[in-house]
Every structure is written in structure tokens, then in C-alpha cells.
Design brief:
It is built from 20 helices and 15 strands. The protein has about 500 residues and is an alpha/beta fold. The longest helix is centred in the middle third of the chain and has 21 residues.
């Protein structure tokens, strides 16, 4: 066709056809004219070999500084960014235009390809089924999830099989602890229904300790015990080389994107309870596993059997309930029923809760608390544990170290502040303690908080007398109903009246 350049493919096609056909037929098969064919006969080079390199249409903006200024920078710091080099060169030579950034980037890219340092090579691995399972933690604070209106600071424990892509995730409220690893890993294995031969992680302090010698020995022994219980071989990647765990590092991003999309589809990031959010995460992970169902079913026969039972996924501590009405564990104060003062409790410490036992008798389950800062302890307070004692000493509320944590809802705290400003500290402590006692005695904490909020919004202080009348009668005013029991001798008289003499079989036969 006139005006079109001949390609290398057309030239090769012509040369092949020319071996069996004359010039005109070979040219027709190649799609160009006979005159072009005769020119090719005179010069058999390919069109790409005839092209003359395009000359520069404008002066090189880097000609004066490339060899003298830029190359020494690149040789000294091969990984430096083009924008940093441009900023330094323009500082030395202000007349250079900032518009040469793209030119500089292309020139630096070419230099790195020709004379730059050798780069690391990723060696893709083939993972046989049933061999490798990986564990890691990933931060999910960017999701902005809330529970009951409060932002949930959390991360996810993530488990994945390298061959099939089976995944499991567990919401972790604390750090990368051993209990979080043990609980998440065991949940994943029992949901999978089998155990891989090897368990891989990065340099988690929960598994491979990076602490002092005593802590290293303690944690390493517990982790090794967990691996022995499931007959898995522990391994880890080299410290600081995350791509060696690429089978789970990459899926971290996919999982968080799937959660983000699901939250957008849901239309809200607020969940009523922590369990509701955990069910939401399980549902998203379950969808991913459903997509990999065929490969998961292919891998399951290669997994080893689960043991007969789970092993401990908690730390056990022994604490003493003090006269303060609670105990301190990991620099967090927990309240307990006052009848336990002086007793030693055996505590199973999980990532999100504490199970407390008196001997072998379960006593209570407490929410696990965290230190707000390195130099300040935390408090986990249940006002029901101390309200009876606080009614005897209401002024103790004024300077109580865990006063803010004592209030079960913000309405009680706002009522205390309003009372202090209006009626003085002594009366404020008395009324606030009685409000808490009312919430406890009548089991009306939520309803009472709503009424208090309404009163405060209307500019009124809570009226204790009217609130007591509104939330039912006092237990002391409930009438006592006396029930008169029938004497047991009356049942003997009834038995004698309705007694029937037994008739023997012989008398009946006679």
C-alpha cells in the first residue's frame, strides 16, 4: 500500500515465498508492490536494520551536569530517587528547569540497567500440598472499625496454607503475643481439619524470642511445646526479609482490601459487639476459602491428623485479691467481688479476656485491659463489685484512682460533673453513688442512663427520689406473702381413706 512502511514480518514472508515463486508472486504474497520487491533484491537488509537512529531535536539539558555532577551521586548512592537528585542539582545550578524531571528519571533508569548494582532476585517456589502453613500478624487500624461507637484498636492474626490458599483470621486486641498466636493458630487448624508438616513465621517475639534470656527461654519453650503438640516443624524467614514469607505477606493486602470493600458495601463501620465484628471477618475469609475450595479439598488428604484435643492457648498466672477489692496483673488493676479479698485466684490470661478460678471453680470472666501508656497503669472496673462498699463511703468517689472507669456509661460521669458544679462535692458523691446503686439494684443501667441524659439536656439535675419511684418499688417495700403449709398428718388421713386392700391371685381364683 502506498504510504505504508514495510515490516520485518513482510520481508521475511517475501524471502520465504521467493524461494519457490518469482518476484511478482512473492511480492503479492508479502503484500507490497513488485517495484518494492526489486528494491529488496538489491538490499536484503530488514527494515529495522535500515533505520537511522533519531537525532536529538533539542539540546541535552543534562549535558553539562551528567558526567561531572550526577554520575558521582549515583555511584555513591545507587538507590537515590530522581527527585532528590534533581533538587540537589537545581540547588547547585538554579538555572536548570524543574521540567527535566522525566528526562532525568529516564536517564537514571538507563544508567542503572547498564552500570547500576546487581538487584535481588525473587526465586519463585513450588509448594507441595500439605507441607507449609504460614502465620503472621497484620495491622488493621486503617480500617477504622468501631464497636459500640468506640474505635477498635486491633490487628489480625492471619494463617494461610501455601499450596491451596486456605486462610483463617482472628481479631487480636493486644500485641503479637504467644496467647494470640496459639489461639489463632489452633482455631485455624481445627477449622481446617488437619495439620501441615511445617509452620513458618517471621521473627515473632511470640515464637522466636527477641527479648532477654529468661523471657526467650520461657516463650521459646511454650512455642516449641505448641509445635510438638501438633507435630509441626517450626521455621522462620531471615529477619528483615519479608518477601521470604511472600505466601502470606501478599495476601495481607488482599484480605484488608476485601474487608474494606465489605465495610463500604455494609454502609457502616460500627458493630454492636466485638463478636459481631469477628463474625463479619470470618464471613469475608470464608468467601475467600469458598473460591479456593477445589485446591483446599485437593490438599486436605495430604495433611496430618489433628491431636485428640487442643493445647493451652493461654498464660496461667496466680494473683491475690487485695483489700482494694481487686488484683493487679500486667500493670492493670482488675476489680473482683469483695468476698474474694484475701484469696488467691488462678487466672487464665487470653488475648481479650481473663478467666478467673478459685481452685478449680470458675468464678468470673473479665475483659482484658491494656496499659494506656508505658508509665501509667490501666484499670478494668465493674461497679457491681464495689458498689456495696462505696455506699458506705460515698466520699471515696471524689478522688478514686479509677473513678472514670467506674462509671458504666457516660451519663453517670456527666451527672457527677454537673452535681459537683452545682451542689458541691459531698452531695455530688452521695447522689452519684446512689444512682449507681439504683442501676445495680433495679437492673436498669441503660434505661437510667437515658433518663439522666434527658434531664441533663433539659438543664435539670437528676432527682433521686423521682428516679427511684420511676424504676419500680424498692425491694424493701415488696409485700411479704405468708403461705400456710398443710400439716403432713393430713396426708396420712387421706392415705387411710383411699387405701385399697390388695387381693391375692388365689382369692380371685376362688
Amino acid at each position: 500500500m502506498p504510504g505504508l512502511h514495510i515490516t520485518d514480518h513482510q520481508m521475511r514472508l517475501y524471502m520465504c515465498s521467493r524461494q519457490t515463486h518469482d518476484t511478482a508472486i512473492a511480492a503479492a504474497k508479502a503484500g507490497f508492490s513488485t517495484a518494492t520487491a526489486y528494491r529488496i533484491e538489491g538490499d536484503p537488509r530488514l527494515p529495522s536494520q535500515k533505520k537511522v537512529p533519531r537525532a536529538r531535536r533539542r539540546p541535552d539539558p543534562l549535558a553539562d551536569v551528567w558526567d561531572a555532577e550526577i554520575l558521582p551521586i549515583l555511584e555513591a548512592a545507587p538507590g537515590i530517587r530522581a527527585i532528590a537528585v534533581l533538587a540537589e542539582i537545581r540547588r547547585r545550578y538554579p538555572q536548570i528547569s524543574p521540567g527535566i524531571r522525566r528526562t532525568l528519571e529516564r536517564r537514571m533508569r538507563t544508567w542503572r540497567a547498564l552500570a547500576g548494582p546487581e538487584q535481588d532476585v525473587m526465586f519463585r517456589q513450588e509448594h507441595p500440598p500439605g507441607r507449609l502453613g504460614l502465620s503472621d500478624f497484620t495491622d488493621t487500624s486503617a480500617l477504622g472499625v468501631m464497636v459500640a461507637g468506640v474505635v477498635l484498636a486491633h490487628r489480625l492474626y492471619h494463617f494461610r496454607l501455601a499450596f491451596s490458599g486456605f486462610a483463617a483470621a482472628h481479631v487480636v486486641l493486644g500485641g503479637e503475643s504467644f496467647v494470640a498466636l496459639a489461639e489463632g493458630l489452633q482455631n485455624a487448624l481445627w477449622a481446617l481439619g488437619g495439620v501441615p508438616q511445617e509452620h513458618r513465621s517471621d521473627s515473632l517475639s511470640a515464637a522466636f524470642c527477641n527479648l532477654d534470656r529468661d523471657a526467650q527461654e520461657d516463650l521459646t519453650q511454650r512455642y516449641q511445646g505448641l509445635m510438638r503438640h501438633y507435630d509441626m516443624t517450626p521455621s522462620r524467614n531471615n529477619p528483615g526479609v519479608a518477601h521470604e514469607n511472600g505466601s502470606i505477606e501478599g495476601p495481607h493486602g488482599h484480605l484488608k482490601k476485601a474487608l474494606e470493600d465489605a465495610l463500604l458495601m455494609r454502609g457502616s463501620r460500627d458493630f454492636d459487639t466485638l463478636d459481631a465484628y469477628r463474625r463479619f471477618v470470618d464471613e469475608i475469609v470464608g468467601r475467600q476459602n469458598a473460591n479456593n475450595r477445589k485446591r483446599i479439598e485437593l490438599e486436605r488428604p495430604h495433611l496430618t491428623q489433628l491431636p485428640k484435643r487442643r493445647t493451652a492457648d493461654f498464660e496461667e498466672k496466680v494473683v491475690t485479691v487485695t483489700s482494694s477489692g481487686g488484683f493487679i496483673l500486667r500493670r492493670v488493676f482488675y476489680t473482683a467481688p469483695s468476698r474474694l479479698i484475701g484469696h488467691r485466684l488462678r487466672v487464665h490470661l487470653y488475648d481479650d479476656r481473663l478467666d478467673c478460678f478459685l481452685g478449680s471453680t470458675p468464678m468470673m470472666t473479665l475483659r482484658r485491659g491494656r496499659q494506656p501508656s508505658a508509665d501509667k497503669g490501666g484499670h478494668v472496673v465493674d461497679y457491681r463489685h464495689v458498689i456495696h462498699a462505696l455506699r458506705k463511703k460515698p466520699m471515696a468517689l471524689l478522688n478514686l484512682v479509677y473513678r472514670d472507669q467506674l462509671f458504666p456509661r457516660p451519663a453517670f460521669r456527666k451527672a457527677f460533673e454537673a452535681l459537683c458544679a452545682d451542689v458541691g462535692d459531698k452531695r455530688a458523691c452521695k447522689v452519684t453513688v446512689e444512682l449507681l446503686a439504683l442501676a445495680y439494684d433495679r437492673a436498669c443501667e441503660a434505661e437510667l442512663a437515658q433518663v439522666i441524659d434527658a434531664d441533663l439536656d433539659a438543664g435539670r439535675l437528676p432527682d433521686l427520689t423521682s428516679l427511684r419511684e420511676q424504676f419500680g418499688p424498692s425491694p424493701g417495700s415488696v409485700p411479704v406473702i405468708e403461705v400456710e403449709l398443710v400439716p403432713l398428718s393430713a396426708y396420712d388421713e387421706l392415705a387411710s381413706i383411699y387405701a385399697v386392700e390388695p387381693t391375692s391371685n388365689l382369692e380371685v381364683a376362688a
